[in-house]
Amino acid sequence: MKKLLAIAATALILPLSSQAKPLDQEQQQQVRELVRETLIENPEIFIEVVNELKKREEIARTQAQDSALSTSQAELFNNSNDPFAGSKTPKLSIVYFGDVNCGFCKKQDPVLESLVKAYPDLKIIYKDLPILGPSSREAAALSLAALSLTEGAKGNTTYLSLHKQFMSHPARHDSNSIASSVKTQGLNLDELKKAVDADINQQLDSNIMLAQRLGITGTPALVFPDEIIGGFTNESTLKEMIGQRLNQAK
């Protein structure tokens, strides 16, 4: 019956040729019946078609993501406005997209801290991706404000400390928990709010647009120079990935 399907498909295609005689209504009905009979007797054809479509969609998605990754290297890894942890002269950099209201990000953060300690040549670049509500945006903006108000290397330290404080909150944030986190870090909330300017908002908007171009739809997401990893990734997996790339960089 699969042969009948092929015959039927051919019959449908042939009229598209300028030299072929169009099918009349009776012939068209016969083709429909052949297709219907074939599909009823061979329902696995549907599964084959669906699987093939999924495979093609995945290939297209991967190709688009690889292309976006290739053209976004500078924005990902060479933006001097981004806070970071680890080496200033790294052999490997990883971009981390996270949200303070993301439960899996709260698990990912300690893993990244451990990796920075384990690999002196590693740099983790933090790109806040506030997609889980207004409090995500508020906390991300205040973290970047803390970075901007502190000069030099201390800026990264201040950002990372406040970021860690936000991540330590077990539930979703609200204005009260955000204010409490800022106070715990010994920072002035009013001063931070005043420092949230157009540049900081633009930086967060740029992070969101960059994530969209890369096909990142949730947090956490980790971006290597050659690969994008979505979702929480455990320490052993990341160590294997980092070790391979550092060995290649030797």
From TrEMBL:
InterPro entries: DSBA-like_thioredoxin_dom (IPR001853), ScsC_N (IPR041205), Thiol:disulfide_interchange (IPR051470), Thioredoxin-like_sf (IPR036249), Thioredoxin_domain (IPR013766)
Limits of the Thioredoxin domain: 58-201
PROSITE patterns cross-referenced by the UniProt entry: THIOREDOXIN_2
The keyword Acyltransferase appears for this protein: no
Signal peptide: 1-20
Keyword vocabulary terms for this entry: Signal
GO MF annotation terms: oxidoreductase activity
Protein name: Thioredoxin domain-containing protein
Species whose genome carries this gene: Endozoicomonas elysicola
